[in-house]
């Protein structure tokens, strides 16, 4: 149950209910997306790449099958445990908080996919993630962010929804508080009431551009869906960013 001292994502993502609610994600779509992304990047088979906030490793495994040496990192110990049960050659999975660099590791590319950013209460935590990614990247390495298009999501917010998964009715209530898109999730299992909340900052392309440039990145390309169509603030459902580490740090801190 909810623990106010625990960050919501550390608690919710580590439960079996999170994986039950979202277990029907489209693997074929994910594979096409990764293949499209790799075609936009100057990375080659054998390069070391990081899937940051990898969950149970569905994107990690695809990257490994494409020939990369992949590390999947996630804060959820249960997700990493499940990921390790279906490992592909060339993968490593670790429990790790993405606000900190992985010690003594470097990568040609870091992927942060499926809206795995903006979970924190502090904007400084977002900057810590970007700073950590920069530290782990090789010179001129690339950082790929796949986030929701907040403008589109807010305009098309479905306030009430019930999803039945595994015999459990998940009652979902969505709101926007001017800073976060919130998802209130309530359900009953074996006679016990459960309540969790997802809270994601409604970050825009302008927000990412500022954070990335302040931390020594330049944005090369943006896309608006998994087929890598052009990004449109009003109509795209995704915000996909390919950024490159600059050879010098333009941060003014």
Classification by helices and strands: alpha/beta
Task: List segments where confidence is low: pLDDT < 50 over at least 5 consecutive residues.
Answer: 1-5, 249-253
Give the termini separation. 40 Å
Largest sheet: 7 strands, mixed
Shape: globular
Return the CATH topology of the domain at 26-148 and 204-245.
Rossmann fold
Count of strand segments: 11
User: What share of residues is helical?
Assistant: 25-40%
User: What is the level-2 CATH architecture name of the domain at 26-148 and 204-245?
Assistant: 3-Layer(aba) Sandwich
Strand content: 25-35%
Output the strand order for the largest sheet: 3-2-1-4-5-11-10
Order of helix and strand elements from N to C terminus: HHHEHEHEEHEHEEEEHEE
Q: CATH class of the domain at 26-148 and 204-245, please?
A: Alpha Beta
- Mean pLDDT figure: 92
Rg estimate, integer Å = 18 Å
Q: Can you count the helices? A: 8
The CATH superfamily of the domain at 26-148 and 204-245 is identified as: Vaccinia Virus protein VP39
């Amino acid at each position: 149950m909810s623990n106010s001292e625990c960050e919501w994502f550390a608690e919710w993502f580590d439960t079996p209910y999170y994986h039950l609610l979202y277990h029907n994600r489209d693997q074929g779509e994910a594979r096409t997306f990764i293949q499209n992304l790799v075609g936009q990047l100057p990375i080659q088979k054998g390069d070391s790449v990081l899937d940051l906030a990898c969950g149970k490793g569905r994107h990690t495994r695809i990257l490994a099958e494409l020939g990369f040496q992949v590390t999947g990192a996630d804060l959820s110990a249960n997700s990493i445990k499940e990921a390790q049960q279906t490992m592909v050659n060339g993968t490593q999975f670790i429990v790790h908080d993405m606000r900190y660099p992985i010690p003594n590791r470097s990568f040609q590319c870091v992927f942060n996919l499926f809206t795995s950013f903006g979970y924190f209460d502090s904007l400084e935590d977002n900057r810590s993630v970007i700073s950590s990614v920069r530290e782990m990247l090789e010179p001129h390495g690339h950082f790929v962010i796949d986030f929701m298009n907040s403008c589109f999501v807010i305009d098309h917010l479905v306030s009430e929804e019930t999803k039945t998964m595994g015999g459990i009715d998940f009652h979902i209530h969505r709101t926007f508080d001017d800073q976060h898109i919130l998802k209130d999730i309530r359900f009953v299992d074996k006679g016990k009431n459960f309540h969790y909340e997802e809270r994601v900052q409604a970050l825009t392309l302008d927000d990412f551009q500022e954070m990335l440039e302040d931390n020594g990145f330049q944005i090369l390309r943006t896309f608006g869906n998994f087929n890598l169509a052009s990004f449109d603030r009003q109509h795209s459902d995704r915000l996909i960013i390919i950024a490159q580490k600059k050879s010098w740090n333009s941060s003014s801190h």
